[in-house]
Amino acid sequence: MIVPARNESSRFPQAPSVFEADCTVKRNAPVTGDYRLLVLNAPRAVLDCEPGQFFHLLCPTTKTFEPYLRRPMSIYGYFPEEGELHFLYKVAGEGTGALATLEPGDALNVLGPLGIGFDIAPDWRRLLLVARGVGLATLAPLALKARALDRTLTAICSARSRDLLMSRDYFEGLGVRVIAVTDDDGSSDIENVRAIIEDLIGGGGVDAFYTCGSNRLLKLLQSIGRAHAIPGQIALEQQMACGLGMCQCCVRAFRADNGIVHRRVCREGPVFDLQEAVGW
Amino acid sequence: MVDLTTRIGSLRLKNPIMPASGTFSEDLADVFDLDLLGAHVTKTITREKRGGNATPRVCEVRGSMLNSIGIPSKGVEAFKAEVLPFYRRYDAPLVVSISAGSADDFARLCAEMTVPGVAAIEVNISCPNIEEDGKAFAMRPSTTETVMTRLRAATDLPLWAKLTPNTGETTEVARAAEAAGADALVVSNTLLAMAVDITTRRPKLGNLMGGLSGPAFKPVALRMAYQCAKSVDIPVIGCGGISTVEDIIEYLIVGCAAVQVGTATFIEPGIMVRMIDGLADYLAQSGLTGVGDLTGSIRDEDASDGMVFMEAAP
Fold first, then answer.
1. What is the SS3 string spanning B51-114?
2. pTM reported for the whole predicted model
């Protein structure tokens, strides 16, 4: 079901860019630790995505779970040729709990693609991705696009332990240089990560930072970015209702030229300028 | 061919389905052609810039939601410069929702919004009256009449009064709004409610309390719409918890001339378009010629005592 393309009545029709689409579950299984991979067969119309965009999922209701609102989820992968949409998620509550009950063949309605994704500016040649846990999922499509644009990529992947390192194989498969840091061996300590990044800047150089999900990493990258005048972007989360920009539920504070402003994560984001983001 | 048109005073709508204020914006044009709707209703604007409430601004309760968004507003000048021009491309009438904390400010904003391109003004009198005791204007007949009289003097445009369910004087408030010159009633805004996280023992909303909307609220708003339709001669626009075509039919039967759909759009952004088609199908299949055949068709003659007891039902 694609809704609805009756534009002939409008004098200045605007073609729909966001769709409510019924997808079919192809796979929904645990991958690493608490994380699960959901693979959907999706109509072609919804697969013109940008890295960093998200979908708003109408999670099923079950005996145990009764999510009412849709749940926003960043795209782990979009593959127009295969007709597939991938999400990587961790069961954390009502919505993801319900999502985990989906079986191959089940239907799932998705709304999207939504939001503004990552930029790769023409002069950003050497990219550094830094994220922790499931935050890396959001950066996976960015890595794929950056490779297609022939950029040099390094990813610092942080996790509690080595067996919880997300997407390491995926990134390495793309030819990304992966630096894994963990809490278990202490290498994920913020000062160690700072030293690793300073070495990368002093070595091959870094043109832009990308991150997602961690307040500590945001603050670290803001400080290093300011010191070396390296730009960056961050994908942010916020609880959402409509996902389209109507309800004003998902605002966050940002530092703009004219002081603190509130922006909608769903509409003006979810990707924002690294230095304008305010930690939480 | 069934007739979906409906009249709200001097305004003719091509169908009786429009969005509820606060659940609609230009952004929905990404999903469907907004000209399919009976009317467009903006989020409430205020004269001054407002930031809105602390987050979380929304939480869900079983099958419904609470919100305390807090009327963030870009202010009237930004609205005129940025939002108003967007809607000029559409034939559907634009209804601008306004609010203020005092009758003076309300009247001034009402006059300022009386401009070409605005077809009607919905006055959100369900907001706190900061000059009195913070209680919403529409909680009492007296404050309703005072503010509506000022608003009536401020504009020649149709005035729709949006009532609140947070009152024990529904019919009196409805009559006060009508007496003071309202052209229609929108029934209703959200019901004051609360939810607590039992793990953290904190309120689930940043603002402590918020408005209940969604299917759980529908019977309350439907009851109010019925009471209002029985009490006044001006059109009543039903609003509250509509998520199916059957819900719309129910509101029409109790006396509404049109409806507003809100929270359901958050779940299914294209739902209003499907409801327009669904309503046409229902009318055709039922052998009815138009919306007017449904409006006020409730068979309540056997329950005449209901009028006496309806304010104090157990």
1. CCCCCCCEEEECCEEEECCCCCECCHHHHHHHHHHHHCCCCCCEEEEECCCCHHHHHHHHHHCC
2. 0.94
